[in-house]
Structure formats: C-alpha cells, structure tokens
Specification:
alpha/beta; Glycerol-3-phosphate (1)-acyltransferase; seven-stranded mixed β-sheet; two-stranded antiparallel ribbon; 11 helices; 9 strands; 15% strand
C-alpha cells in the first residue's frame, strides 16, 4: 500500500504539471506560489521548524514580519517547482537575468585548464538557473542531489535536473565516487551545502553552531580546485533573476572554508529571507 500511495502522489504531480503546461509562464508561477502557500502550512512539522529557525535567526523581527517571511518561503517553493519542470521557459528568463561576479572567470579558467570546480549554493532563490547559465556559456555543469524517499518522484526529479547539465549524481558513497571522477576529468559540479550530512560539524551560521558538511572542502583541497559560491535571487514573476558568481573561497582548512561559505550564504539570506528554505533543521 505504501508503494501504491507513493506512485499515486507521483502521478498527481505529473498530472498537475501537464494541466499547467499550456498556461503562460507568469501565470503558472503565480498558481504554483499560491498553491504551495496554501498547502505548505498543512505540514505542521515543517511549519514548526521554519518558525523556530526564524525565531533564532531574527529575534529582532516582529511576529508579523516572520509570518510574512514564512508565507514567502512557501511561495518560493511553489515557484521553484514550476520553474524546475519548465526549462524552456526558464531559459527565456536568462535574457532578463543580471549575472555578475568574479566567480565566472575563475570557473572558466579552471574549465579551460582541464580542472574541475565546485559551484556551491544552497536552497536559495532559483538555484538551478546558474547551471543552465554556465552551460549556455560552454561550461557544462553537473550536480549532486539528494534522493527522495519516493523512488518514482526521485527518478523524475533526477531526470529534470539532467536537462540543466550532467552528470547528475546522488548523495552517498557511490555518488561521491562519481563526483570525484567528474571533477578529476575537469567537469564542474554544483552542490547545495545547506543541509546536514554524515560528515557535518558545528560551524557558525546566523550566530549559532549549525551542522555543516566539510567533505566538499576536503575534496577541493585534495584536487586543488576552486569552490565558487553562486546565488540567483528571483525577481518578480517572469522578470528573470539577479545572479552572482562570487570569488572562490579562500584556501584554508576545511572548517575555515565552510565557515566562509556559511557567512556568504547568510549574507544572501539576510538580504532576501523569503527566498531560502527555512524548513531544514540546521541547528538541531
């Protein structure tokens, strides 16, 4: 019965995406935002994690302000899911996207020298648009993803990610081997580093120790490749993104490098708190 229920939920998602496909992109974004803004709070556990995280991160904000951020977070999740499964529409947004920062030159230099690079971000803004952008510039960028508990959705999700660049590898031991192979072959790879993992250690994030993966920094040091933080802020529906490829992280110990990444991510989240997924328990 559990497998049947998972398959049913997968079919519902496919049906919703099929129904929405003929609708103009901006309207689809608005529908996705409204739908998840309505349904997201029904998850009591995630809602509680979000409110606890916001209380810790922004003790100076009023309850009204934090409630508004929470509503925007749910809307951002809805928009992202519409965008992810509409790569042609997303590509058209690149013409309206502002891209800046020294990280692009660093990634291009590494790629043309036959060295890999790690493009680092979090569940912030439109995190897949950066892989599409550098791919369009002739630098194909793969990525690592976390498999979903629903195997039907997980396969569907992974196939969607491949449209933005390959290889796409799962987290875990086998995926790490594939990641290393790709980097050694000079292939840039993207990673979302705002969730705790088995190698996580407590490092500062919003003034509190947060479980932070240091494995990627160990890999970068071992292979002598740059770690480039990238962030794409979503503008109002259908108006593109404001994207930045920041300077590579300063070479140091893995803990120092990941502390610097946490600080870079925190700066973006403080500026646009409604565009980060506060539903992860980083501070547990």
């Amino acid at each position: 019965m559990r497998d049947a229920w998972r398959y049913f939920k997968y079919l519902v998602l496919r049906a919703v995406l099929l129904v929405l496909r003929p609708i103009p992109f901006r309207t689809r974004l608005a529908i996705g935002a409204s739908l998840i803004r309505l349904l997201g709070p029904l998850s009591k556990r995630k809602s509680q994690i979000m409110r606890t995280n916001l209380d810790w991160a922004f003790p100076e904000k009023s309850e009204t302000e934090k409630a508004a951020i929470a509503r925007e977070v749910w809307a951002s999740i809805g928009r992202f899911n519409v965008e992810l499964y509409a790569p042609a529409d997303l590509r058209r947004q690149l013409a309206r996207t502002e891209v800046s920062g020294p990280g692009l030159a660093a990634m291009r230099d590494a790629y043309h020298a036959g060295r890999g690079a790690l493009m680092l971000t979090g569940h912030f803004g439109q995190w897949e648009v950066m892989r599409m952008h550098v791919g369009d510039l002739g630098i194909p960028c793969g990525g690592m993803y976390k498999e979903h508990s629903n195997p039907y959705y997980s396969r569907f999700f992974a196939n969607a990610l491949r449209v933005y660049g390959t290889p796409i590898v799962p987290t875990g031991r086998s995926g790490t081997r594939e990641l290393l192979r790709a980097l050694r072959q000079g292939h840039p790879m993207a990673m979302l580093l705002d969730q705790p993992t088995s190698d996580a250690v407590p490092l500062p994030f919003f003034g509190r120790p947060a479980r932070t993966a240091i494995g990627p920094a160990e890999i970068a040091l071992k292979l002598d490749i740059p770690m480039i933080p990238v962030f794409a802020v979503r503008k109002p529906e259908g108006q593109g993104y404001k994207a930045v490829l920041e300077a590579p992280l300063t070479r140091g110990t893995p803990e120092e490098m990941m502390t610097e990444f946490n600080a870079r991510l925190e700066a973006q989240v403080r500026a646009y708190p409604g565009q980060w997924l506060w539903v992860y328990d980083r501070w547990k």
